Structures are given as structure tokens and as C-alpha cells.
Amino acid sequence: MAIAKNDKSTIRAWAMFDWANSAYNLVITSTIFPAYYTAITFTEAYGDRVTFFGVQVVNTALSSFALSVAYLIMALALPILSSVADFKGNKKAFMMAFTYLGGIACMGLFFFKLETLEWGIICFTLAAMGYVGGVLFNNSYLPQIATVDQQDRVSAQGFAYGYIGCVIIQVICFVFILKPEWFGITDPSFPPRLSFLLVGLWWVGFAQIPFVKLPKDRRNSGRVTRHVLRKGFAELRDVWLRLREIPEIKRFLPAFFFYAMGVQTVMIVAAAFGEKVLRLGAPKLIGTILLIQLVAIGGAYLMSLLARYIGNVRVLMLVVCVWIGICVSAYYIHHEVQFYVLAALVGLVMGGIQSLSRSTYSKLLPADETDTASFFSFYDVTEKVAIVIGLFSFALIEQVTHNIRYSALSLGLFFVMGLILLFRMLMLRKTAAA
User: Fold this and answer.
1) Looking at per-residue confidence, does 392 or 197 come out higher?
2) For the chain, how long is the longest CA-to-CA vector?
3) Which of 104, 204, 221, 260 could form a disulfide with 386 if both were Cys (CB 3.0 to 4.6 A apart)?
């Protein structure tokens, strides 16, 4: 079924998927879960060391390793799944399946306590896999619902919806955590565990809007056999060969790969960093992350506006420079006020770089392409492999040095590489124009 481009109701429905799944990204990845996890896994007897299936490891390193595994599995699986989705014409079905996986896994975290550490890490990993899979298939709709001249704005709208939605659910959860006596709650672990349950319900519930509104794909009744999988791999090979023929994509994806290592890792470990370095406590950490989300709404639209005047690549270069400054500054912070200023800067550039990266890639795709899931699988796999390396290196450095500051500082190197590659892409454009 053809999708009318730039239709306001379709775009709003598409953006509601960001509204739905961003609850996971904020509560589970960035705020309540990291604070809760760090608190319950730090004991007087063992400090920040925990035992996971008989192996002793630093608590925050364990969560980073778990996410690395989740993203690695998805990086390997998504190219195949996206090819099957394009062949079968059922990418919405995949989008739904991953959403339900992530939402149910979040609900499973309701039963997570220190004595059920393995269960909690498994659910944490499955939730990440559900989030990653859903985002890929949602992203692949962007070039189908918006014309090239509108994709920056529509991408920014999606991220803005996401930030607004996750702030609302975060405030709801915040009330339970700060005022448990209002609800007769005496178990201190209950409010955060209830938050995980609410996130799962929010995610699955609001995702029904895009599930209903986005048109169904043109279905292929053929069975997914080995032959179909071979055709999936053949389609991936064809997509890869086509991408290699587009010089700007050949420059953009490596640049995106390096700076995404830094961006995604910072977003995931920010709360744990604040807790370990400054001992801010859950209320201050959650408040800080809320500040980041609110600032990020304006950041996404600001970067979209700047891109109209100076171009996407120049804006990305400017934002990456700010990220380099953030990583260096994180090594030296010792006071709460410094952390809050740094958090505001992260918010300003976080939404902008994510939104603009997505729309920049979308603009570089062939204008007549309809099977966008396979093309976007390369974008998402690039990002997920970057996260795997970023998180793994962050965790490994902390595991070896026992100093999370060195881990933060090391992320700056990824941004420097991304900046160099973006500069090369800009030079390519100038050469082509000449």
C-alpha cells in the first residue's frame, strides 16, 4: 500500500513510536534502572563487585558488557531480518514483534532484586534487543513518509515526541520514587521495580498508534525458506554494492560509526558515571537526566534549523566538536554544578546529532528506493556495532583501571576520528562541486 508523503497524521503516528519506546531509553537505559542497579549491587562486603553466574565482575562493567552482547546479537541478526522483511513485505510485523519483546522484558524487570541478578541482566539484555529491532524498522519508514526536503524536520519531530513522552513517564515514575508514602509503599525497591513495569506497559500501549495508522506493507505470500534467506543475503549484497557506488555514503557511514561510539556510550553510562564520581543519589540523577531530555527537544529542532543554512555535515562537525569538549571535561569534574552544566550541554547536542544523523543518511539514499528496511539495516548495524565497541571499551578500561574517569576520557578519541572523517566528506563535496 502506497504511503502519502508529508501526510501530517501519518507523520504524527510514526513519531508516536518514538514517544512509546523512548520510555525504555530514558528509564531503563539512562535513569532509574542504572541508579537502582548501582545501588543494589554495591554492598559493604564486596563493594562494587558482583557475581554473575559464578564470575566476579565490576557491577557497572557487567551492565555495559550485557548491553554490548545485546547490540552485537542485533547487529548480526538485523541485516538478515531486514532482508526477510523486504522480501516478505512485512516490516511492520517485525516492528511489532520487537516492540512486544522489549516491553515484556521491561515488565519482567519488576522481579529484579540483588538475589535475582541473573534474571535482571537477562531481561535488561532482551529489552535492549527489543528496542534496537523496533527502531530499525521504524526508521525505515522515514524516506517513505516524507520528501527529502522535509526529512530533517520529520526526523526532529520524531525525536521531540520521544523526549516529551519519556519525560512524562519519567515524572510519573519519579512521583512513586520520591513520595512512596503517598501510596502506602514501604518496600524501597518497589517504586523503581514498578517503574520498570510501567515502562513496559507504556511502550506496548502507545506503540499501538503507529501499528494501526502506518499502512500495511505489500505482502509476499512466499514462504521463508533457505532459498528466501539466500535471496535475503543476495539482497544485502546488492544493497552493499549500491551503497559503495554512492561516494557520500561511503564517507558518511565510517564517520557516523566513530562518533556514534561516543554518543551512544555517553547516553548509556551518564547516570552510572554521575553516581560513581559524585555520589549524587537517584533523585538528583533522575532530575539531571530529565533536564537533558528537555534541553534535547530544543537541540533537535535547533540543529534541524541550522542545517538549512549551513548544511547537515557542517552542523554535525560542530556538534562533534562539542562532544569532544564534553568527554575531556568529564575527566576533570569534581562538583555537582559542573556535572549539571555538562549535562545541559549533552542534552543540547544529543537530540541534534541523533536526529540529523538519521535524516542525513535518509537524504543520501537513492530517491527511487522503496525497500528501505535493507538500506536502513546498514545504518542501524553501523550504530549497533559502534555501541558494542564503545560500551565494551568503556567497561574494559574501567575493569582494568578501576577509574571510570579514564573510560569517559577515552570516548573523546572516537569523536576525534568521527570529526576527521566528516571533514573528509565535506572536502569530497567541495571537490565534486568544483
Assistant:
1) 197
2) 71
3) 260
Backbone angles phi, psi at 207, to 5 degrees: -70, -15
422 — phi, psi (to 5°)?
-65, -40
How far is the C-alpha of 394 from the C-alpha of 265, rounded, in Å?
Answer: 8
Cα 75 to Cα 37, 65, 69, 136, distances in angstroms: 26, 15, 10, 11
Q: How many residues does the chain have?
A: 434
CA distances from 358 to 4, 218, 304, 354, 410 (A): 20, 25, 11, 6, 25
CA 73 – CA 78 distance, rounded (Å): 9
Grid coordinates representing 357 are: 544523523
Give me the DSSP letters along 335-363: SHHHHHHHHHHHHHHHHHHHHHHHHHHHH
Tens of pLDDT, residues 213-235: 887 766 555 555 556 566 556 66
373 pLDDT higher than 70: no
The DSSP code sequence of 113-182 is -GGGHHHHHHHHHHHHHHHHHHHHHHHTTHHHHS-GGGHHHHHHHHHHHHHHHHHHHHHHHHHHHH-GGG
Complete domains list, the chain, with CATH: 8-218+230-433 (1.20.1250.20)
Helix (H) or strand (E) holding 224: none
